[in-house]
Amino acid sequence: MPLHLLHSLIKLFLVPLSLTLGTALAYANVDFGVGMTSAMGGRQVPSLSAAYRGAQWEFTGFATGVQNEFYFHSAYGLNGYRVWKSGLLLNGQVLSGFGLGAVYSTRGFMDTGATTEDTKADVALGPALEMLWFFAGPVYLRLEALYGLRDLGAHLTLNAQDFVHLSLGLSL
Amino acid sequence: MKKVIRWAIIVSWLLAFSLPASARSKSGLHFFVGTSNQLTFPGTLRVGWEDWEMGMLHPTAYGATKLFFAGESLYSTLGVAATTQGDLGLGLAGSIGFDYELIWGIGLRSELFAVYSYNGYSLGVGIVGLSYDF
User: Fold this and answer.
1) Partner residue facing B9 (CB), from A36, A44, A156
2) Domain boundaries, position B92
3) Which of A42, A59, A93, B95 could form a disulfide with B113 if both were Cys (CB 3.0 to 4.6 A apart)?
4) What is the tally of structural domains in chain B?
5) Higher pLDDT residue, A152 or A108?
6) Cβ under 8 Å to A: B residues 75-134
């Protein structure tokens, strides 16, 4: 990942996070989970995810990857949401969130007999949503979607560079 | 026709941030029909009762979701869906959007929709259409 991009992402997410930490929060939670993401192109590669949630704001992130002797594929995501309690679904609390997110994905492939590796990276930035369902006490299912901004024409036909992440986890 | 739909999409999102919202909540029977990615029509076809709705959430996802209104028009949904792209799968579906009543029970409704199935299929698209409350 280019250093300036990493720097920008850190500023984008850590600055709002530090502002949130400085406010009087009614409560705060840290979540840890495992899941899968569409950033892996439909392959069911496990991802690790974590989240920090204040009274009104939440920040989530995930990392996933796979590697063998022929190729590698990694993806990382960060999201910041304004969250609110929505109600109950089957007696489990549902939280909704809307905000901004970023996904960085990189992959490489080395063909048989080749001496160099073909690599490619994708970055997506755009609006993001989450639906968080505590279906069994502190155990949750989290559905997140990032709608990467790229081409206005595509957005007007209701398309976006979509990255969806589903995770199962525990809120501490 | 596509130009008309594109302008409708632009106007609907402008309305979402400019018009004062009218008091709104779902009660009784309601419908939602709309277009989705690539301006597919119908891109969604749902029938609802109070806080629940079911049907074709998207041409690749059929299921039932619960509606959660936050304030006057903003809402989110969460539920289960059977995805039909490739192998049949079961997944979690959710969305966030707005539903403005225009006139005579007809509402302008738009949402960002997402679904993730256990078989690896996923989708995140926009949906725009009209709702009708009986």
Assistant:
1) A156
2) 2-133
3) B95
4) 1
5) A108
6) 76-79, 91-96, 112, 114-116, 119-128
